[in-house]
């Protein structure tokens, strides 16, 4: 499908770009405006230098990735794949990772630094029925659907065999500082 | 076999008893009319009826006065529902795969007769946007001619469906923009990532597209996707994460009026954007509802810091959108994440309880007395729809 491959390419560009340039917010902002002004007006880079911490950041922990307050889950919306037979960046058996994702910028309380997190959905199976404690909906710097790269309400199963939503992961893709 | 006389008497007694029993059964059968099975029909949609997204992949129709289920409208994965302005038809935009979780994807706009709940029309549409429930993903024109379905592949479009011919009339690209807010007539507007509106004039023929000036900061204080509308008059109330309300008459020249603040309307200082600034803020999955006849805006309000725009709330604040004043605060018996409000002169609030994605109760509240009329185990998801929204 043409649209799929185009979006795959776009996604790769965004992700690689973020990893490479994420410490330079102004460059990203300019790139975002210039390069993809129509589709995605600004790239999702964090206000990592904020001096005060959000409620989530104040309570975030680094030990248990199966809880909603795990530091990488600052802007996740869905069932944690780790509770469903998958992991923090792996899909449960039978499901497929989405090649694209929404992006959050989360602070690791151990080193005080911020990192770019790709919240990829696992797709192609009906929704995982994990305990309620694995069902998260956090919203640090989360934006509406007209800013899709920062929106966690979207079913991100684009480019997978089936767009059925199964669960969500939180892969580390780079530094945001 | 020879039957002993004693036994013969006994058998006769049994036969007599049986035959007298048969007679009495027959006599009773004459008195009772056998029931026939039939299917109920509904009257015209009542002012206090609401359709609630529920666990069983459906919208369940409730009578808010009686607290009873009236019927069920099927709806699959993240389906949206809209009620026609004449209340005769429920439209459902839905998505299915031929083999459950795989196979060919099929997207449909389905029409259900509001009195029989019979499926009357099924129109194939392009792949619609799949996201958490948003009323603004499916809209209808007041004249009953057009349906607007928001698509995301992930480029964004709106498919305009001709409800008279039962076909998709056109797909309109809205790059960098999303959702649809119908005008009073002849078009819709979409919210854009640069803080502006894209306005699409379409009533058949060639679409004409215009853009408003940017009026909000999409990075720091975006407009809620779930911002409510007075659909009859084509007026949207665009509300930002920090509680500013931009009343906007939608049309080709849509330009938002000067904003007013939710907390200022309550006599409080403006809600800032501080991540450690605890104050009253709007939030939830469907945090807003609007009663057009009374010019009342209903908002789920909670106390929190900035970026708590998804938090549920235990209070509904009621604002006069003409005077820009808070006129009532209604306590809910438990936290809720979605509300709608009936459009009559004695409005009811339909609130979906709970947080995150768990199934919630449907709580019916009388806005005049503030009394909770019903709290129903509904398996409710955060979306309820009323007529005239």
Automatic annotation (TrEMBL), chain A:
Q: Whom does it interact with, and what assembly results?
A: Heterotetramer of two light and two heavy chains.
Function description? Methylamine dehydrogenase carries out the oxidation of methylamine. Electrons are passed from methylamine dehydrogenase to amicyanin.
What InterPro entries does its record include?
A: Amine_DH_Ltc, MADH/AADH_L_sf, MADH/AADH_Ltc_C_dom, TAT_signal
Query: Sorted alphabetically, which SUPFAM superfamilies does this protein's record hold?
Result: Methylamine dehydrogenase, L chain (SSF57561)
Provide the Methylamine/Aralkylamine dehydrogenase light chain C-terminal domain boundaries: 61-174
Superkingdom as given in the UniProt entry: Bacteria
Q: Where in the cell is it found?
A: Periplasm
Q: Identify its protein family.
A: Belongs to the aromatic amine dehydrogenase light chain family.
Positions of modified residues (Tryptophylquinone): 102
Please give the name of this protein. Methylamine dehydrogenase (amicyanin)
Report the active site residues.
102, 121
Main subcellular location of this protein, as a coarse class: periplasm
Which reactions is this enzyme annotated as catalysing?
2 oxidized [amicyanin] + methylamine + H2O = 2 reduced [amicyanin] + formaldehyde + NH4(+) + 2 H(+)
Q: List the disulfide bonds.
A: 68-136, 74-106, 81-167, 83-134, 84-128, 91-122, 123-157
Q: Which species is this UniProt entry from? A: Acetobacter oeni
Question: Tryptophan tryptophylquinone (Trp-Trp) cross-link located where?
Answer: 102-156
Q: Read off the lineage from the record.
A: Bacteria, Pseudomonadati, Pseudomonadota, Alphaproteobacteria, Acetobacterales
From the UniProt record, give the pathway where this protein acts: One-carbon metabolism; methylamine degradation; formaldehyde from methylamine: step 1/1
UniProtKB/TrEMBL annotation, chain B:
Which pairs of Cys residues are joined through disulfide bonds in the record?
177-192
Is Disulfide bond among the key words of this record?
A: yes
Question: Record's GO cellular component, any one?
Answer: periplasmic space
Say where the protein is mainly found.
periplasm
Tell me which UniProt keywords the record has, alphabetically. Answer: Disulfide bond, Electron transport, Oxidoreductase, Periplasm, Signal, Transport
Q: Which family does it belong to?
A: Belongs to the aromatic amine dehydrogenase heavy chain family.
Q: What is the protein's given name?
A: Methylamine dehydrogenase heavy chain
Q: Which organism is it from?
A: Acetobacter oeni
């Amino acid at each position: 499908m043409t649209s799929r491959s185009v979006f795959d390419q776009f996604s790769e560009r965004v992700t690689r770009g973020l990893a490479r340039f994420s410490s330079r917010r102004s460059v990203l902002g300019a790139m975002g405006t210039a390069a993809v002004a129509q589709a995605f007006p600004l790239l999702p880079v964090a206000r990592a230098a904020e001096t005060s911490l959000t409620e989530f950041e104040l309570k975030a922990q680094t030990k248990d990735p199966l809880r909603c307050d795990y530091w990488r889950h600052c802007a996740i919306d869905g069932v944690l794949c780790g509770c469903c037979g998958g992991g923090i960046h792996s899909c449960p058996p039978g499901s497929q990772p989405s090649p694209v994702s929404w992006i959050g910028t989360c602070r690791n309380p151990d080193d005080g630094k911020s990192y770019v997190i790709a919240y990829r959905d696992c797709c192609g199976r009906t929704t995982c029925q994990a305990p309620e404690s694995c069902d998260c909906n956090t919203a640090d710097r989360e934006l509406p659907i007209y800013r899709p790269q920062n929106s966690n309400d979207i079913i991100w199963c684009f480019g997978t065999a089936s767009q059925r939503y199964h669960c969500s992961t939180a892969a580390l893709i780079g530094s945001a500082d | 076999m020879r039957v002993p006389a004693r036994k013969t008497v006994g058998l006769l007694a049994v036969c007599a008893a049986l035959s007298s029993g048969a007679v009495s059964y027959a006599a009773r059968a004459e008195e009772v009319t056998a029931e026939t099975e039939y299917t109920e029909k509904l009257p015209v949609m009542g002012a206090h009826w609401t359709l609630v997204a529920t666990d069983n992949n459906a919208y369940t129709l409730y009578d808010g006065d009686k607290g009873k289920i009236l019927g069920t409208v099927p709806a699959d994965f993240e389906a949206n529902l809209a009620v026609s302005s004449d209340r005769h038809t429920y439209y459902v935009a839905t998505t299915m795969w031929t083999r459950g979780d795989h196979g060919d994807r099929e997207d449909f706009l389905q029409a259900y007769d509001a009195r029989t709940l019979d499926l009357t029309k099924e129109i194939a549409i392009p792949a619609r946007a799949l996201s958490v429930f948003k009323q603004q993903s499916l809209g209808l024109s007041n004249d009953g001619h057009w349906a607007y379905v928001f698509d995301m592949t992930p480029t964004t479009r709106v498919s305009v469906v001709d409800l008279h011919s039962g076909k998709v009339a056109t797909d309109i690209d809205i790059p960098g923009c999303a959702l649809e807010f119908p005008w009073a007539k002849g078009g819709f507007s979409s919210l854009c990532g640069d803080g502006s509106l894209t306005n699409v004039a379409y009533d058949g023929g060639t679409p004409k597209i215009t853009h408003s000036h940017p009026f909000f900061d999409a990075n720091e204080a975006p407009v809620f996707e779930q911002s409510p509308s007075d659909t009859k008059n084509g007026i949207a109330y665009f509300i930002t994460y920090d509680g500013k309300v931009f009343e906007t008459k939608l049309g080709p020249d849509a330009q938002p009026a000067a904003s007013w603040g939710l907390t200022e309307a309550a006599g409080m200082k403006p809600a800032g954007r501080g991540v450690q600034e605890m104050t009253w803020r709007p939030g939830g999955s469907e945090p807003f509802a609007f009663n057009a006849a009374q010019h009342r805006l209903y908002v789920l309000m909670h106390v929190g810091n900035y970026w708590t725009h998804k938090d549920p709330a235990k209070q509904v604040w009621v604002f006069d959108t003409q005077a820009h004043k808070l006129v009532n605060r209604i306590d809910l018996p438990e936290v809720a994440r979605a509300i709608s409000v009936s459009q009559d002169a004695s409005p009811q609030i339909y609130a979906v309880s709970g947080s995150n994605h768990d199934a919630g109760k449907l709580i019916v509240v009388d806005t005049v007395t503030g009394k909770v009329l019903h709290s129903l185990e509904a398996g409710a998801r955060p979306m309820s729809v009323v007529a005239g929204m």
